[in-house]
Every structure is written in C-alpha cells, then in structure tokens.
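Batch manifest, entry 17 of 40.
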Amino acid sequence: MTAKELLEQAEQMRRSNRFGEAINTYRAAAAAPDATDDIIKKSLASVELIQEINDFVNVDLMNP
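Output type: structure tokens
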C-alpha cells in the first residue's frame, strides 16, 4: 500500500474508534518509503492526538 492509502485507512479506523489499529497504521504511513513530509506530519500529529485523548482523565468525575 502507498503512504496515502495507509493514511486514508488509518483515518477510517480512527472514525470507527479503532484507535490502536489507527495508531499502527498512521505509523506505517509515516514510515512508508513514498511518504511525503505532509503525510508524515499528519500521521504523527494524529498519533499524538489519539494518545492525548486516550490519556485524558477528568478527576472531578472520578471523585464525586
């Protein structure tokens, strides 16, 4: 698969809440031999965003 196809596949996975698979696919898109700077930036930024979302904890909701 091309980097662009991997990026599109990762975005579909993210929209389907398949975050683990999306992260792996984003990383594959960034590491693909034909990855452009734009694809690398989008992929790595998306990985970072997913990780931030997954790490979010609202302590006010956990301690009523």
